[in-house]
Specification:
This protein is mostly helical and 185 residues long. The chain has one domain: Aldehyde Oxidoreductase, domain 4, CATH 3.30.365. It has 7 helices and 4 strands, in the order ααααβαβββαα. Strands 1-4 form a two-stranded parallel sheet. Strands 2-3 form a two-stranded antiparallel ribbon. A hairpin with a 2-residue loop joins strand 2 and strand 3. Helix 1 runs parallel beside helix 6, helix 4 crosses helix 6 and helix 5 crosses helix 6. The longest helix has 20 residues. It is globular and about 50 Å long. 21% of the residues are buried.
């Protein structure tokens, strides 16, 4: 279970909103309190359940990530290249989607069973939601961007599924059989 899901479960047991729990834990960290999904107020995970179908809800959930990583310096130090930071964030979300939903390596007699992309499924263009990454400029010194969104995707999906169905997904990828097994009786 990821730390994000762990915090969500603590919030549930305390009858707290998960965002409010995180903000309370960050009370002494102003930089950490300034980023919320979408950047312009709260976009809470229960919104997933509003969509007419899970795929539409998933697209909405991942569509508006926000990042506050200090000055973007992916390039010449005097200018920075925020487009590179946005592209890096988008690619890390796509990577996270694959890890959360489709990418799975299986073994038989110690041998990997997947050989290529026909049996090791990575996200295709049509699987990826339209994204609008918002970088929030700050006077803070830069920090690394890397694959910063990758570890957030699976917990966000798991929480959204939990809110919609009460199923607790704890093992990636969230295959159909794992989701069905997690659904409450």
């Amino acid at each position: 279970m990821s730390l994000m899901l762990f915090f969500d479960e603590i919030a549930d047991r305390r009858s707290m909103d998960p965002v409010e729990l995180r903000l309370a834990l960050l009370k002494d960290t102003p930089r950490g309190q300034t980023v919320r999904a979408g950047g312009d107020g709260d976009v809470r995970l229960p919104a997933f359940a509003i969509g007419p179908e899970p795929r539409a809800g998933l697209r909405r959930l991942l569509q508006h990530p926000a990042g506050r990583c200090g000055r973007s310096v992916s390039g010449p130090l005097e200018r920075g290249h925020p487009d590179n930071t946005v592209a890096q964030t988008e690619s890390s979300i796509v990577y996270g989607l694959g890890l959360a939903l489709t990418e799975r390596i299986t073994f038989k007699d110690g041998v990997v069973q997947q050989c290529n992309f026909y049996d090791y499924r990575v996200p295709r263009l049509w699987d990826v939601p339209e994204m609008h990454v918002k970088l929030m400029p700050t006077p803070n010194s830069p920090i690394g961007v890397g694959q910063m969104a990758t570890p957030l995707v699976a917990p966000a999906i798991a929480r959204a599924v939990q809110v919609a169905t009460r199923a607790k997904l704890r093992h990636t990828p969230f295959t159909q059989d794992r989701v069905l097994a997690a659904l409450p009786g």
